[in-house]
Amino acid sequence: MSSAPDPVAARVLAALDAAGVAYETLPCDPAFADTAAFCQRYGVPLERSANTILVASRSEPKRYAACVVLATTRLDVNHTVRKRLGVRRCSFADAEETRALTGMEIGGVTVAALPEGVPLWVDTRVFQQPWVIVGGGSRNLKVKLAPAELLKIGAEPVEGLAFEPQPA
After folding, report:
1. Residue 4 banded pLDDT, cuts 50, 70, 90
2. What's the total number of domains in the chain?
3. Is this model's pTM higher than 0.70 or not?
4. In sequence order, what E strands does the chain have?
5. Residue whose C-alpha is closest to residue 22's, from 128, 165, 130
6. Is residue 62 a part of any domain in this protein?
7. Does 66 reside within a domain?
8. What is the CATH number of the domain that holds 134?
9. Is 155 domain-assigned?
């Protein structure tokens, strides 16, 4: 069992342990928890950083999904996510809604210990990496794991969940 710096991170690590997920914890200065800052500070290539983004329907009853995409891609919220959720409109959940639903802060949202009924969709590009860094449930912890380990916690690979951004 891994030790964790706070109750939310402890809940996340306990969920990973319960599922038999092999992972490594990486302490993180909360000031550098956001993807670009983390990668630069800790020397992690952007293509090895996988962001977990909570998406919410705009109308009631609210529907949610946790989507995992590489930091080098963009979540296709207006097409793929919207269609999979079966809603007319959806958007990124804001920090307050994310915290209320998951207990996690932006910059620490992760793949494990999600509320019942929130699907975990992972862009297939993530599975092409030998390992990725995901949030640890709080801004002071990251988790390194092989993407195949996500299948142990119910992740569903989704082709086209993300797209390559166009050069500026």
Report:
1. very low
2. 1
3. yes
4. 24-27, 50-57, 64-70, 74-75, 90-92, 120-123, 132-135, 141-145, 156-158, 162-163
5. 130
6. yes
7. yes
8. 3.90.960.10
9. no
Per-residue pLDDT reduced to its tens digit, 43-64:
999 999 999 999 999 999 999 9
Q: Has residue 2 been placed in a domain?
A: no
Per residue in 78-102, pLDDT (tens digit) is 999 999 999 999 999 999 999 999 9
The pairing of beta strand 156-158 with beta strand 120-123: parallel
Query: Residue 15 sits in which domain range?
Result: 7-149
Cβ-based burial of 153 (10 A; exposed 0-12, middle 13-18, buried ≥19): middle
Q: How many residues does the chain have?
A: 168
Distance between alpha carbon 155 and the CA centroid of its chain, in Å? Answer: 11
132: β partners: 145
Q: What is the pLDDT of residue 6?
A: 86
- Nearest CA-CA partner of 85 in 114, 56, 60: 56
